[in-house]
Specification:
The chain is an alpha+beta fold and 332 residues long. It has 2 domains: 8-159, Fructose-1,6-Bisphosphatase, Chain A, domain 1; 180-320, D-Maltodextrin-Binding Protein, domain 2 (3-Layer(aba) Sandwich). It has helices at 8-37, 56-72, 81-86, 108-113, 196-208, 230-239, 252-265, 307-319, and strands at 44-46, 53-55, 77-80, 99-106, 119-126, 129-137, 142-147, 152-154, 158-159, 180-183, 223-225, 244-248, 268-270, 292-296. The protein has a 7-stranded mixed sheet with strand order 3-4-5-6-7-8-9, with helices on both faces. A 5-stranded mixed sheet has the order 11-10-12-14-13, with helices on both faces. Strand 5 and strand 6 (129-137) form a beta hairpin. Helix 1 (8-37) runs antiparallel to helix 2 (56-72) and helix 6 runs parallel beside helix 7. The radius of gyration is 19 Å and the shape is globular. Bound molecules: D-MYO-inositol-1-phosphate. Residues 81, 103, 106-108, 184, 186-187, 228-230, 249-250, 254 line the site of D-MYO-inositol-1-phosphate. GO terms for molecular function: inositol monophosphate 1-phosphatase activity; metal ion binding. It catalyses: a myo-inositol phosphate + H2O = myo-inositol + phosphate. This is Inositol-1-monophosphatase.
Length: 332
């Protein structure tokens, strides 16, 4: 079945199912935290490195979600972080078919430390496009959700972005100054001079340093934040709480739901890597499996620009200050 075969009515039904599923799965995450607080132990296994971990909770919650989806929508494809990680391929498996792209526990490291930024993340895609997103962070009881043409919401009652009246604020005229930058240290910790870790840090410092410094690259952002959950980073961009999210290295299940929500809220998502000419290169839509993401919050018009113009200006200002990241991906 192709996208065009799904009517808005069918999408609405899938959306309601996904919201309910997200809430139930999030409750399971919370139950496990409560059990730990009461003294239960927790098994943690390493995947690719000591910072790439999986708990029994990730696996149990993925099975719970997968079983519910297979029962309700047996013709849909399912891609989950934990079942994917057990496979041999690192290829990009999403095609035009209706596909659920799920991270049962995004922010696993946070979860193991009981740092509240963990959540379940459920994306639904058709024709490669994330059309439904549900993110539920149970410790904070925050539910982010969206469906194409239905808006993006916090707890089903506050429309995103949060500041809408009298209009969505434009991006600052001197962005990235006055912006909150969200970024992640990631899991590639190789301490090699030109590795991703060093390239990220150089980019963070460029964006943070005072204006006029670093050969003109100093961006003097208002603040730098790392939530430790890519999908929540995107939800916070959709809220308008973060202005910019720049990240490389995470995977489609880390971003599918967050991108759906951000796009529906009016945000922009493109590639993290600066093109040869950042001033004039076209600003293309992000490729979901590219592992390279630059997200800009929803923006309204100012006296001299449309919201989209201010988003594109901000993209170019970020591109001028960041290093190219080296994350590869067969088939994306
Ligand atoms: C991780 C988080 C983190 C990002 C990593 C992801 P996980 O997901 O989203 O913010 O920097 O790249 O792998 O492992 O907690 O599901």
């Amino acid at each position: 079945m192709a996208t065009s075969d799904l009517s808005q009515g069918q999408l609405d039904e899938i959306y309601a199912f996904a919201v309910d599923l997200g809430r139930q799965a999030g409750q399971l995450l919370l139950n496990r935290v409560e059990k730990r607080i009461a003294g239960d132990s927790q098994s943690v296994e390493e995947k690719d490195s000591a910072v790439d971990i999986v708990t029994q909770t990730d696996e149990d919650v993925e099975i719970f979600i997968r079983t519910a989806i297979e029962k309700k929508y047996p013709s849909h494809k399912f891609l989950g972080e934990e079942s994917y990680a057990k496979g041999q391929s690192r290829g990009y498996l999403i095609d035009e078919q209706p596909t659920w792209c799920v991270d049962p526990l995004d922010g696993t490291v946070n979860f193991t430390h009981i740092f509240p930024m963990f959540c379940v993340s459920i994306g639904f895609l058709v024709n490669h496009r994330p059309v439904i997103g549900v993110i539920y962070a149970p410790f904070q009881d925050q539910l982010f959700s969206s469906c194409v043409n239905r808006g993006a919401w916090l707890n089903e009652k506050s429309r995103l972005p949060l500041l809408q009246y009298p209009s969505v604020p434009p991006l600052p005229a001197n962005a990235p100054s006055q912006c909150i930058l969200s970024c992640e240290w990631g899991k590639d910790r190789r301490d090699v001079p030109d590795g991703n870790l060093h390239r990220k840090i150089e980019s963070f410092v460029n964006l943070a340093a005072e204006v006029g410094s670093r050969g003109g690259k100093g961006g003097m952002v208002h603040g730098v934040r790392s939530l430790g959950s890519a999908t929540l980073d995107l939800a916070y961009v959709a809220m308008g709480s973060f202005d910019i999210w720049w990240e490389g290295g995470c995977w489609e299940w880390d971003v599918a739901a967050g991108i759906a929500i951000l796009l529906e809220a009016g945000g922009l998502v493109t590639t993290a890597n600066p093109p040869e000419d950042p001033d004039t290169a076209p600003i293309e839509d992000v490729r979901l499996g590219s592992r390279l993401y630059l997200a800009i919050r929803p923006a309204g018009p100012s006296k001299i620009e449309t919201g989209r113009q201010s988003q594109e200006r901000t993209v170019r200002e970020v591109w001028r200050r960041v290093r190219e990241l080296a994350y590869t991906r067969p088939g994306a």
